[in-house]
Amino acid sequence: MIYIDEDMVLKLINWDQTFEAMEVAMQRYTENRIVQTARSRTQVIGKPNLLVTMPGYLDDQTYGALGCKLVTFFPTNSDLPKPLPSVLASIMLFDENTGLPKACVGGFEITKWRTSAASAVATRHIYEKRFKPLNILALLGAGHQGRTHADCFKHFFNFQEIRVWNRTASKAKEMVEEFNKKYNTNIFKFYESNEKCVRGADVIVTTTNTSEPIVNRDWVKPGAHINSVGAGRNHHSEIEESLYFNADVYIDHWEGAKTELAGLEKIGIQFKAEVGKVILNQVKTEDPNRITIFQSLGMAVEDCAMSRLIYDSYLKTKNK
Ligand SMILES: NC(=O)C1=CN([C@@H]2O[C@H](COP(=O)(O)OP(=O)(O)OC[C@H]3O[C@@H](n4cnc5c(N)ncnc54)[C@H](OP(=O)(O)O)[C@@H]3O)[C@@H](O)[C@H]2O)C=CC1
Ligand SMILES: O=C(O)C1=NCCCC1
To answer: Which protein family is named in the record (predicted)?
Structure first.
């Protein structure tokens, strides 16, 4: 069995292939060519910290794999004297014919990249494909996911302004300075207020651990698209509940939604479809003024697709 560490993953990964892998994983989901369950959650007693297991099988010529991501979600890591990321992961990849373990692939970068690319896929198919404007992007959260989403959305879309808000304002300020330098631009703008950041935005991305809403119904303009990525007490804590009643809500998978979004279903929110159906043109939002939400939970088969991609790229570099 080989071990592919995070440094190697970073050398091998790129946005275009990651986007394609997410599109394929979401499509194959809708075509019933995947197997996955809701993830298991093992909680450390007395703490919000979780060990999560995500097994999956994806049937695809290029991205198919049998794998299992082991991921820790430790929101308390940011309070450590030497802070650590709150989400850490490793992915085990198995031979489909023998069950032998083929590789253990670092899952930290993969989780950031694939989650950002899944938001980009949702934005492209739910929003942009309907010829919607891409003037202003609002990013709420400047943690690991917030930063990777900034790179990803800069790569795939041509926003004129990318706004950044974060609970700890200094981190958003730092991020804005760093990203303007990195891309030799001035489109990244620091926002002190989440309300001002959201008002007027065409696309909104939330990537925080908040358990209280940071996006209110009245702030979101008609027809805007939201990618809600973060998980606080619930996986849908970032958006005011009343906004869900006034939007078409898309998910990535029903097995996860049934458990992790049970709170939304309980208050009467109905999910319109999984993103795979939109990619396959089986469903769309007709009303141009309807707000759309992609409630991203993250799927095991996305990690299968990514670990296969990285594994194959790794073997190619070794055999050169
Ligand atoms: N949908 C999916 O597929 C995935 C979702 N996630 C989720 O994405 C979220 C972000 O992950 P990641 O970027 O790796 O984590 P980080 O620890 O790097 O960032 C956490 C972010 O949440 C903010 N935050 C924490 N508590 C609050 C609060 N009470 N109010 C407002 N903001 C808050 C932090 O702000 P500050 O700087 O002020 O502390 C920071 O911006 C997590 O909830 C994680 O579970 C992760 C992976 C996949
Ligand atoms: O999909 C994932 O990976 C995760 N989703 C939410 C919590 C941590 C990991």
So the answer is: Belongs to the ornithine cyclodeaminase/mu-crystallin family.
